[in-house]
Write a structure and sequence with these properties.
The chain is built from 5 helices and 35 strands. The protein is mainly beta. The two termini are about 60 Å apart.
């Protein structure tokens, strides 16, 4: 391959190549790009001068001929098994712009004079065994944009010279574990920076409290798992593009900056600090759509003035502490899309001011607290996608103000209470994916404000009440995968419904536009025979006498769960 004197680009990535990189490859003066990523190459990165001399006769390459490859601009050999160190004569690659050697077995130190690569833009050395310290000469490479050195064994202090990299976009030394000292203030003055990542080291000192710039491009600050102390600096709140702020497991003190809420797109990780309970005047605590983990601290219960607690879409776990019930002024609690488990506290019923309660997509189990069915001021209740069981009591009729009710994706059973018909402000009702049985209550005709009704994937039987045609605001209905029978009404919401709303109900018939069987118009005697025929078909072994049919129906109840699994 060394004889390919006109070769400009060599791309052999993502193959199954083995062995070492031929020294003759670097004898091609025209070579600009060498990409050997995703192979199983081994051996040293380059043959050092000693090896070149010892292989002189075999390779026909002299000690000085390494200069010939000086036009190389891109060298990418990541994801191989290359060993050895970064060669001392790397400076001879004077045109090099991209050096990517990540995910190998490279050892040794970063050359002290690495700053000689004056045109370098990308320096990727992640996931190797590189040791030593960070060379101060890196700060001389003014063109450098990506300095990515995580998962190595680099130690010592972070040189302040890195603050001279005015074009730097990504700076990462995560999980080297042995970096010490304070992060230089100069790094936080690089306005082009998008990512600062020093997580999992032994850095100490404080995060610089002030800065001359607003870091307008900063997207991620990852400083967790260090020994950093002091307060969260206010300049963080000026980083308008910040998406991820990770400061967990340090020794930070003080309070969370009050204007942290300006970072609307941030994703904060770590734990909710117990010191949050000391912010006695707080009325809204918004941590939703982040990566918070651990338990909800009971100290939250000290926030007596709190009206809104927004923790939606995090990774919180454990139980809801009883102290939350001390928040007598609470109006909104959004805890959905977490990993919270255990029981929903019975004392929630004492939170008489609550209007919004979102607990969906967690791991709540057991029965639903009876006290919650009597929260007269509740407007929005969502406990969907949990493991709540038991029957819904007639007390549900006490939710007089309820507008949105979602109990879907649980293990609720029994009949739907007729008292539901008294919820005249209800606009959306979702009881899907449960084990409700019995008929659809005729009292639903009184749900005058209802717009959405989803009863799918239950074990409801009987007919669809024709009176539902009268609900003028009803826009969508879904009764699929139940045991309903009889005529599908044709007026109101049903006129614009699709077949998907009625699938999985073998006994339904009616509207030809839905491609369901037509309903035969027969006299009562014929109709009775027709029903008997259906029973003969669906009951086990085709029993022909009424007593056996009733036995068959009783047996059929035992297979409800099995049928539900099949349809879902």
């Amino acid at each position: 391959m060394g004889n390919l004197s006109q070769l400009a680009e060599l791309s052999l990535g993502d193959n199954q190549l083995t062995g070492s990189i031929p020294a003759a490859l670097f004898n091609i003066s025209s070579l600009l790009v060498a990409s050997l990523v995703f192979n199983s190459l081994s051996g040293p990165l380059f043959l050092d001068e000693g090896n070149i001399m010892s292989n002189l006769e075999l390779l026909s390459i002299s000690k000085n001929q390494i200069n010939i490859v000086s036009n190389l601009e891109i060298l990418s050999i990541s994801k191989n098994q290359i060993s050895g160190g970064i060669p001392s004569h790397i400076c001879q690659l004077t045109e090099l712009k991209i050096l990517s050697i990540s995910f190998n077995n490279i050892t040794g130190e970063i050359p002290r004079d690495i700053g000689c690569l004056a045109k370098l833009k990308v320096f990727y050395i992640a996931e190797n065994f590189i040791s030593g310290t960070i060379p101060a000469s890196l700060g001389n490479i003014s063109t450098l944009q990506y300095l990515d050195c995580p998962y190595n064994c680099i130690a010592g202090q972070v040189p302040p010279e890195l603050g001279k990299l005015s074009n730097l976009r990504q700076l990462s030394f995560e999980q080297n574990y042995n970096l010490i000292g304070q992060i230089p203030k100069s790094i936080f003055n690089i306005s082009s920076l998008e990512i600062i990542d020093f997580a999992f080291n032994n850095l100490s000192g404080r995060i610089p409290a002030t800065t001359g710039l607003h870091l307008p491009n900063l997207r991620e600050v990852l400083l967790g798992e260090n020994q950093i102390k002091g307060e969260i600096p206010l300049f963080i709140t000026n980083a308008s593009k910040l998406e991820t702020l990770s400061l967990e497991n340090n020794f930070l003190t003080g309070t969370i900056p009050t204007n942290l809420g300006n970072l609307r797109d941030a994703h904060i990780s770590g734990f909710i600090p117990t010191s949050t309970g000391n912010m006695s005047g707080l009325t809204r605590l918004v941590f939703q759509h982040n990566n918070l983990m651990g338990n909800i601290p009971p100290e939250i219960g000290k926030l007596k003035q709190l009206q809104g607690l927004y923790l939606r879409n995090n990774k919180l776990q454990g139980h809801i502490p009883e102290e939350v019930c001390h928040l007598s002024n609470l109006v909104a609690l959004t805890l959905d899309r977490n990993k919270v488990s255990g029981l929903i506290p019975e004392c929630f019923g004492n939170l008489s001011m609550v209007q919004q309660l979102y607990l969906g997509s967690n791991k709540f189990s057991s029965k639903f607290p009876m006290s919650l069915w009597k929260m007269r001021g509740l407007l929005y209740l969502n406990v969907s996608r949990n493991s709540i069981e038991g029957e819904v009591p007639s007390d549900i009729g006490e939710l007089k103000a309820i507008v949105y009710l979602d109990l879907s994706g649980n293990h609720f059973s029994g009949m739907i209470p007729s008292k539901c018909g008294g919820l005249q402000n209800l606009e959306s009702l979702d009881l899907s994916n449960n084990s409700f049985s019995g008929s659809i209550p005729f009292s639903f005709v009184n749900l005058l404000s209802l717009e959405i009704l989803d009863l799918s994937s239950n074990f409801l039987s009987g007919t669809i009440p024709r009176s539902l045609e009268k609900l003028l605001y009803l826009k969508a209905i879904n009764v699929s995968f139940n045991d309903l029978e009889g005529i599908i009404p044709s007026g109101g919401v049903f006129a614009n419904s699709t077949l998907q709303s009625f699938l999985g109900n073998k006994g339904l018939c009616g509207m030809h536009i839905l491609k369901v069987p037509s309903c035969a118009i027969t006299n009562p005697v014929q109709q009775s025979k027709s029903k008997v025929l259906v029973l003969k078909i669906v009951t086990p072994k085709g029993y022909f006498i009424l007593s056996d049919i009733l036995v068959g129906l009783n047996l059929d109840n035992e297979t409800k769960e099995e049928r539900k699994v099949q349809r879902c």
